[in-house]
Amino acid sequence: MESVIQEKGNLSIHTENIFPIIKKFLYSDHEIFLRELVSNAVDATQKIKKLASYGEFNGELGDLKVVVKLDKEAKTITISDNGIGMTADEIKKYINQIAFSGATEFVEKYKDKGEDGKGDKGIIGHFGLGFYSAYMVAENVEIITKSYKEDTEAVRWQCDGSTEFELSAAEKAERGSDIILHIAADSEEFLDEHRLRGILEKYGKFLPVEIEFEDKVINNPSPIWTKNPSDLSDEDYLAFYKELYPFSEDPLFWIHLNVDYPFNLTGVLYFPKLKNDFQGQREKIQLYSRQVFITDEVKDIVPDFLQLLHGVIDSPDIPLNVSRSYLQADGNVKKINGYITRKVADKLSEIFKNDREGFEKKFDDIGLFVKYGIISDDKFYEKAKDFCLLKNTDGQFFTFEEYREHIRENQTDKNDTQIFLYTTDENKQDAFIQSAKKRSYDVLILNSVIDSHFINALEQKLEKISIKRVDADTLDKLVEKDVKLESILSSDDQEKVKKVFEEVAGSKSAHVQVEAMPVDELPVVITFPEFMRRMTDMQASSGQRSMFGDMPLMYTVSLNSNHPVISRILQTEGEEDQKSLAKQVYDLALLSQGLLTGNDLTKFIQRTVTSL
Predict the structure, then answer these.
(1) What is the longest distance spanned by two Cα atoms in the chain?
(2) Per-residue pLDDT at 611
(3) What CATH architecture applies to the domain 7-217?
(4) Closest C-alpha to 83, from 42, 53, 121, 113
(5) What distance in Å separates the CA atoms of residue 213 and residue 211, rounded to the nearest whole number?
(6) Which of 256, 238, 257 is nearest to 246 (CA)?
(7) Which of 4, 314, 466, 567 is most enclosed, with most CB atoms within 10 A?
(8) CATH of domain 224-353
(9) Contact, 14 vs 100, CB < 8 A?
(10) Which pLDDT value is given to residue 113?
(11) What residues in the chain have per-residue pLDDT under 70?
(12) How many CA atoms lie within 13 A of 5 on its CB side?
């Protein structure tokens, strides 16, 4: 039997100030100590299981779990496992030599073992610094450990945070390790049962070994992302979603990620029902490394638009900084980023092809996400252009190519450009929509928070199209044809009626013009230039102040010279009576654009009631 000699010595480190560095700088959040120590205990447990599977340990495995105990009176936290334990020599090697990782050596030794040739699968530790995170909260740390190896003695190691340690024989009947933290006065917040449970549930909710705290197992060691998709039902995926997001609506559908080359990656991504305020949907994807929670800030590993998804990604190949607290950019991150984008696009394409009707029913919920992807990611666009849908005011859905064919005959202008007409508000812009429909024009609904950006993206990506809001100009100018209508008014009459309306408008922002339109069009049409509307919408969607500031937007007042009401104004005797009638017609036009407010709206209502 190996004999433990009473021993004192100095830790083998290359800086005298290692503990202040660990305590103040290595880990940004002191609660990480519990993640690191519990992860180490899980490692030790996983190692004994692997050794047993390799035939290098033939004893009883017993009930393999990690136990965390809190003793408020003694001011201690103890993390216990019945894993492989350590001998005195192993303590000297793995504990006294800071930054020598036992996990790294174990992986190297057994990397070619096992059926899959991946002896490292399930081993968490990498850097060998995790144990020393204990000194962020403890003034003194003890290790009482007994190796799984036969004829070895239990060992006690103790260090008060200086570079000196003590190593001596100990009493311990079973294999495994107890890490006892004597909590420092400035860290007594961690001597709280609810605080510790919260930390364990945050970082260890899906650790692969049972974690027991206060006589209860607090984790799910076999989350669904570790299982074969063919073994799972829809109910399993929905139940797991509720486990992650207890108060959320059911997701629309999900993607199970499972790849082992050229990197290891597993996970489940869910498509939630998106709201227009999609900023609040972010930071719902959780990043794990070998089932240890790392972060919910996944902006490097997941493309920006995919951060609207919910779920879990787990990869041992994601490069982490030494404290395992955040990502470090490298080639693998880009590969994983691209893989996730491709998988999401493929899933959407599959649903579209296999169940178009079901896809259309979901599109109101996922359209925001798909459009965001098209705006921000060219690779996603290449696939999404075949399943992104446009919806018109009749509730019909079209792919881009289907829509181009749908409007080709009627909405192609004299320059052979197809004109996509759209509305942002079917109720407010109803008069304009109805005018368009009289000419058999189709009108799309583009009313989401990012549609102003989506419109710009489509114009850049689709050849020979122009997208215009249905109230951005008169229809003859929105879809310009070679054929022009003749005006029934003479040039003199056109000039007269123009002056009447200029006086009625009384604004330098209003540009009044007379235009020959069909007789059944509106008598007066008020429009804003498309570029001005779009710029204003884009800035509003980004939370920016309008580039036009407090200046009134320029708008065009188009008088339909062929409408009977315009002729009637000209035929009305008396300048004041002409203006009164023109004012009523003008106010109606303002009302249709939502521009008649306050006292002007009150006066308009009073005049209308009086005339009745």
Answers:
(1) 122
(2) 54
(3) 2-Layer Sandwich (3.30)
(4) 42
(5) 7
(6) 238
(7) 314
(8) 3.30.230.80
(9) no
(10) 54
(11) 1-5, 10-28, 98-129, 275-283, 319-331, 534, 536-553, 596-612
(12) 5
Please give the Cα distance from 510 to 533 (Å, whole number).
15
Cis-peptide, bond into residue 262, ω within 30° of zero: yes
DSSP tag of 26: I
Q: What is the spatial distance between Cα 425 and Cα 388, in angstroms, rounded to a whole number?
A: 21
Q: Are the C-beta atoms of residues 373 and 453 closer than 8 Å to each other?
A: no
- How many angstroms separate the CA atoms of 612 and 592, rounded? 20
| Choices 3.20.20.70, 1.10.357.20, 3.90.25.10, 1.20.120.790: CATH for 497-611 | 1.20.120.790
Task: Look at residue 393 and give its three-state secondary structure.
Answer: coil
Residue 324 labeled ligand binder: yes
**Any binding-site annotation on 1?**
no
Instruction: Tell me whether residue 40 is annotated as binding.
Output: yes
Residues 457 and 460: their CA atoms lie apart, in Å, by 5
Distances (CA, A) of 372 to 74, 277, 342, 345, 384: 55, 13, 15, 13, 11
Question: What pLDDT does residue 247 have?
Answer: 86
Residue 335 near residue 376, CB atoms below 8 Å: no
CB neighbour list of residue 343: distance below 8 Å, 6 or more residues apart: 255, 257
Alpha carbon 192 to chain centroid distance? 33
Q: How far is the C-alpha of 377 from the C-alpha of 384, rounded, in Å?
A: 10
Model confidence pLDDT, tens digit, residues 504-557: 888 777 889 998 888 888 898 888 777 777 676 666 655 555 444 444 567 888
Instruction: Give the pLDDT of residue 574.
Output: 86
Helix (H, G, I), strand (E, B) or coil at 108: helix
Q: Which residues contact 453 (CB under 8 A, 6 or more apart)?
A: 375, 538, 541
Going across the sheet that includes 465-469, the strands are 443-445, 418-423, 465-469
The neighbouring-strand residues paired with 156 are 144, 168
Q: Quick one: three-class SS letters along 282-344?
A: CCCEEEEECCEEEECCCCCCCCHHHHHCEEEEECCCCCECCCCCCECCCHHHHHHHHHHHHHH
Q: C-alpha angle 409/414/420, rounded to 5°?
A: 55
- Half-sphere exposure of residue 45, counting CA atoms within 13 Å on the CB side? 23
What does the block give as tokens for 601?
A: 């709206």
Is 36 marked within a binding site?
Answer: yes
Q: Where in the chain is the domain with CATH 1.20.120.790?
A: 497-611
Nearest by Cα to 311 from 340, 335, 336, 338: 340
Residue 487 structure tokens: 């005006």
Given this model, what pLDDT does residue 550 score? Answer: 45
Percentage helix, strand, coil, to 5, in the chain?
40, 20, 40
Residues 461 and 467: their CA atoms lie apart, in Å, by: 12
Give dist(CA 39, CA 205) in Å, integer.
12
Q: Does 9 show up as a binding residue in the annotation? A: no
**Euclidean distance between the first and the last CA atom of the chain, given in angstroms as a whole number:** 110
| Structure-token match 């700088």, residue found | 25
**For residue 406, what are the β-bridge partners?**
none
Q: Count Cβ atoms below 10 Å from residue 61 Cβ, excluding itself.
A: 13
Pairing of strands 7-10, 164-169: antiparallel
Q: Which CATH class is domain 390-478?
A: alpha beta
